[in-house]
Amino acid sequence: MSDLTHLTIAQALSGLKNKDFTSVELTEAHINAMQDARDLNAFIVETPEKAMEQAKASDARRASGDAGLLEGIPMAIKDLFCTEGVQTTASSKILEGFIPQYESTVTTNMFRDGAVMLGKVGLDEFAMGSSNTTSYFGNIINPWKANDGKDLVPGGSSGGSAAAVAARIAMGATGTDTGGSIRQPAAFCGLAGIKPTYGRCSRWGIIAFASSLDQAGPIARTSEDCAIMLESMAGFDAKDSTSADKPVPKFTESLTGDMKGLRVGIPKEYRMDGTPDEIVKIWDQGIAWAKDAGAEIVDVSLPHTKYALPTYYIIAPAEASSNLSRYDGVRYGLRVDEGGNLNDMYAKTRAEGFGDEVKRRIMIGAYVLSAGYYDAYYIKAQKVRRLILNDFIKAYEQCDVLLTPTAPSSAFAIGENEDDPIKMYLNDVFTVPASLAGVPGMSIPAGLDAKGLPLGLQILGRPWDEATVLKVGHAIEQKAGFNAIPQSLLNKKAA
Ligand code: GLN
Known about the structure:
Bound molecules: glutamine
CATH topology of the domain at 2-256 and 469-494: Amidase signature (AS) enzymes
Strand order of the largest sheet: 1-3-2-4-6-5-10-11-9-7-8
CATH class of the domain at 2-256 and 469-494: Alpha Beta
Helix content: 25-40%
Radius of gyration: 21 Å
CATH superfamily of the domain at 2-256 and 469-494: Amidase signature (AS) domain
Number of strands: 11
Shape: globular
Oligomer: single chain
Number of helices: 16
Structural class: alpha/beta
CATH architecture of the domain at 2-256 and 469-494: Alpha-Beta Complex
Distance between the termini: 15 Å
């Protein structure tokens, strides 16, 4: 049965439909895989009983001819989505033991469509990071290993999601992306992942990091699987005032495999000094694949690209400092009360409950929002954000999508980049511009570097045009023919 874990979602859905196996069998195979791969530390909470219950109910629904989009598919849920009755922590000590009384809209949509939840997967604390080394629940390990056998980061912040899917524990996982947190871990783990247009998925019930940037999206093995998942996750929700009242297209219908008539823009500012040769090489290869699939290649300019990282690292911490003020020991999770007055309780709770990176961001955020610096930093950053959006709007007059690398490196070793936060932030150089502009972006698995590690390509699209992003992702993916799997799984398969 363990081969069931190597199917894509699309393959599993057709296997279930043809009665080749049941959701109970599929789910059992994944629960076994989850228990076998505990060394990766992908899960904070495993929910096998819930999964089996949902799988049984799914088989019954299917038998009565009532199958949803994700009917019977075992999934992992990022621990930033509130799940009713199941601990939700954002990988933070301050929320340890917090059990939501309600379900996020995105997970509600997925359960409505028959998804099975295997458990809650870890992330960088409050989704702040690119490496999953800031979680209170410990580092998450990438199932891919470099030639030298070192343990690598799975990327972040949706690192548990990516590690679980890459290790064939879950067929797909929810992620969230504020500045790259779906796309970069997908790239580091040889997977596909899409951040839809801001407003496409409801943020209701997702623990907020930076509310004007946060978006939910899927991480899965292929663009097709992402298309299936996104169709289920997306949709208008009156409970999120930034949710867009727009119909959700049938994304799978756009996956034709060809790119005839499409113009692919190559932004010259993404050719940055110091980008490793292998990243440049895979990008050039991606351009060749796009041409091969029938696309026209055009050179475009996004002149404000160099301001994107500093702008993001003002706006995101500013919003975070405000969002995180609610964790005060009164309403949620941890309370450290050692006598003293109310302010002492707040201070001790927050000092003990938050990790260093979260504290750093709260301090930066409070600083850029403070009376004396608000205009110089926060307002300025908002203005630059608008210029960055204008760059994209202008570029999309010349092209339908943009093609770039996803990240400036493949997965790095645990501990690397740790000494210097700026070095860590540089990871987001290719992903944050689209986050600031609110446009959709995805990463697809494109190839392996000399160390045998996956490299991703990023496709950015027009607002609300995820269909074309997925179409292009799918077409390039067909050309790339990426079918490598982590070495550790090959060893297990052979054993
Ligand atoms: N790595 C980025 C950060 O640290 C992005 C995180 C995210 O998208 N949640 O803020």
